[in-house]
Each structure stands twice: as structure tokens, then as C-alpha cells.
User: Which sequence fits this backbone?
């Protein structure tokens, strides 16, 4: 046997396969829509479960299909409790019960990361592959730091730096307008780049938290995602977006200034809209194009990178082979399909998207060595776990 044959035998590659159809998913969606209308929205939780069960059951790896076993009743109870809590919080604000509103808001902010972790754990324990469940175990404090503490501190740091930059113009006179404008631009650029850094750090911390506490059966996943790499990707995406925003501002701002200068004169405003309508539409389309392009760059580049860092049971690795042009075309075509059919084409668009992701998601390793022993942990039934089950119903890798 040649070295190449030995290598192929020792390390095999399999991609996910999605075999759902637009017509099949359309039937699920249309029934869901009718039942949601009939029940005045109360069926939404069950509709979500039915949709996810269809998508999961039509996704397979080497002949083994995924399963989704969460219940609509669990999600509905969680949503109902959260709705009541938000109504109480809003009532405290509207009724000017400051102490009540502050306490409810503080509790929500402080405990939300823990609740999201419990929700994520429920969703993963309800997800199976070949009847083996996934799981997620993470401490509440670590989740709070990654989801809230660290991002909040970094954002405050960016705000402080921008404030200090603007403070240098505190004593500027009206005759130094150029200096004020330059300082404002510098503060804006620093703020935008600072938020890009916050985004990169937060995404890297979150994905490290997710994969290093994720398990399948009795075996664990692991990942070593570079914060520096994610920050670089985030900064590049911001630099791509800035020229787009400048073009849009150049097209849109003159028209808006003209409209504001003729406030109270409907005829003049109508004339401005008639003469500038095409330009404003072009500006809006360029803006949407730029947003979709940057979103495609961010998602594809980050996904392709972090998949290479993830391993399972020290025997299996993963690859993502998405391309920016391929993903971008998916977004454009699927948006057009949905918009041009007034939403009726959404099931076909969703199926196209799921099939594209599956075709470009690979598992490297001999699947015959995959340990298919399920873990022994049961789904928690305490009050906090029950209340949190519907907070993070969608998980995307």
C-alpha cells in the first residue's frame, strides 16, 4: 500500500449533507403561519420547533442524521415568563417607580449571561447526532465576563479615549473651526476602529468559551482561537466599510440638508425628492451592498479560520470552505427570492442557504472511530433552567 493510500485511510474527510427541499419546507412554513395566525401568535414556539426539526432531520453526516428534541411548551413557558418580566420592567419605568425599575433592570443585566448559558445547554442537550446528545457546561461567572464584563469595559475605554480627544478642543474659538472638525474626525475614526477591536475580541472570547465547553457524548471539543487574528479581521472589515459609508454620505447628505432647509414648505420638499430621489435610492442600494459585503467578509473569514482551530476528541478536525463571493451571492440571491415573491420564496431561499453551508462544512478523521456513547447528564428541571430555555433558541456555528 502506497503512502498516499495509507494517508487517505488514516484521515478521511466528510462534509455535511442537507437533503431538504423547498417544497417540503414550504409545507412546514405555511402550516406554521396559518396556526400562528389562528392562535394570535401563541403557536410561535411550536412553529420554531417544527421548523428546526425539519432542518435538523434533513442534515446528515456520513448517513447519520441530526435530531432536535426541544418542545414548544418549554420554549413558550420561557418566552411567557420573559414577556411578563419585561412588562413589569416597562411598568416600573412608565409608572416612575425608579427603585423597582432599577432593581429589575439590574437583575436582568447581571443574570442574563447565566440564563443564556442555561438556554444554550438546553438547546444542545436537545440536539442529537445518531441518537447521541451534545452538551455545554460553563460557569456563570466566566459567561458573564465573556458576554458582558469584558466587552463593557472595552467599550467604556473607547468612549473615554474619544472623550479625551474631543476635550482637547474645549477652549477652541469659533475662528478655529478647522481644528474642531479635524479633532472630531480623529475621534470618530478612533471610535470606529475601537469598536472594531471590541467586536474582534468579544467574538474570539465567545467562540473560545463555546467550543472549549462543548461536548458530544462523553468526548469534548477544544479550540484555540487567536484574539489577534479576529481583531485583524474585524479591523479589515471596518476599513472596507468606511469608503462605502463616505460614498453614501456624499450622495445622501446634500438631499437631507436641502429638505431640512425647506422644512414647512411641502412643495419645495416634493421638488427636492423628485430631483434627488434617484440619487438617494442609489445611495441606499450602495449602503445595503456594502453592509452585505462586509457581513460576508466577516462571517466567511472568521468561520474559515476558527473551524481550523477546533478539534474533537483529539482525533477529528474541522474545515470550512466558504468563499466570500459564494456567500455574498447566496445573500443577494436569497434576498431577491424572498423579496420578489413577497416572502413566499423564503423556504426555497432557506433551503439553498442550508445546502450551501452543509456542502462547505467538513469533518476530517476516520468516523468509524467516533465514540457514540451518550453522556449521562439529564436536562435540568429547576426553575431557573426552565425559565431560560427559550432565550437562545438558535445556535449557529
Assistant:
Amino acid at each position: 500500500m502506497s503512502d498516499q493510500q495509507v494517508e487517505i485511510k488514516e484521515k478521511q474527510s466528510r462534509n455535511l449533507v442537507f437533503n431538504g427541499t423547498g417544497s417540503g419546507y414550504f409545507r412546514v412554513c405555511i402550516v406554521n403561519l396559518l396556526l400562528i395566525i389562528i392562535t394570535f401568535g401563541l403557536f410561535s414556539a411550536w412553529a420554531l420547533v417544527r421548523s428546526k426539526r425539519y432542518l435538523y432531520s434533513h442534515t446528515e453526516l456520513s448517513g447519520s442524521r441530526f435530531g432536535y428534541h426541544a418542545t414548544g411548551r418549554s420554549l413558550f413557558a420561557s418566552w411567557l415568563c420573559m414577556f411578563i418580566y419585561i412588562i413589569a420592567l416597562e411598568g416600573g419605568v412608565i409608572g416612575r417607580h425608579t427603585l423597582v425599575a432599577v432593581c429589575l433592570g439590574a437583575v436582568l443585566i447581571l443574570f442574563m449571561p447565566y440564563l443564556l448559558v442555561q438556554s444554550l445547554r438546553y438547546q444542545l442537550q436537545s440536539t442529537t447526532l445518531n441518537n447521541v446528545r451534545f452538551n455545554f457546561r460553563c460557569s456563570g461567572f466566566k459567561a458573564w465576563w465573556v458576554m458582558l464584563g469584558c466587552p463593557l469595559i472595552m467599550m467604556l475605554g473607547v468612549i473615554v479615549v474619544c472623550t479625551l480627544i474631543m476635550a482637547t478642543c474645549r477652549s477652541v474659538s469659533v475662528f478655529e473651526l478647522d481644528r474642531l472638525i479635524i479633532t472630531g474626525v480623529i475621534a470618530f475614526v478612533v471610535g470606529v476602529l475601537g469598536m472594531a477591536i471590541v467586536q474582534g475580541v468579544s467574538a474570539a472570547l465567545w467562540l473560545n468559551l463555546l467550543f472549549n465547553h462543548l461536548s458530544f457524548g462523553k468526548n469534548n471539543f477544544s479550540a484555540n482561537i487567536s484574539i489577534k487574528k479576529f481583531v485583524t479581521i474585524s479591523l479589515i472589515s471596518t476599513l472596507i466599510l468606511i469608503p462605502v459609508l463616505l460614498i453614501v454620505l456624499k450622495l445622501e447628505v446634500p438631499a437631507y440638508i436641502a429638505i431640512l432647509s425647506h422644512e414647512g414648505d411641502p412643495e419645495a420638499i416634493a421638488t427636492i425628492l423628485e430631483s434627488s430621489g434617484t440619487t438617494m435610492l442609489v445611495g441606499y442600494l450602495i449602503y445595503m451592498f456594502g453592509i452585505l459585503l462586509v457581513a460576508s467578509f466577516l462571517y466567511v473569514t472568521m468561520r474559515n479560520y476558527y473551524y481550523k482551530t477546533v478539534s474533537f476528541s483529539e482525533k477529528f478536525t474541522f474545515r470550512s470552505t466558504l468563499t466570500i463571493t459564494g456567500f455574498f451571492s447566496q445573500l443577494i440571491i436569497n434576498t431577491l427570492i424572498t423579496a420578489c415573491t413577497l416572502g413566499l420564496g423564503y423556504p426555497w431561499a432557506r433551503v439553498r442557504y442550508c445546502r450551501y453551508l452543509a456542502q462547505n462544512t467538513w469533518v476530517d478523521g476516520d468516523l468509524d472511530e467516533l465514540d457514540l456513547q451518550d453522556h449521562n447528564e439529564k436536562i435540568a428541571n429547576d426553575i431557573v433552567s426552565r425559565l431560560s430555555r427559550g432565550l437562545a433558541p438558535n445556535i449557529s456555528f
User: Anything to note?
Assistant: The chain has a mean pLDDT of 89. Residues 139-212 form one domain. The chain has twelve helices and eleven strands.
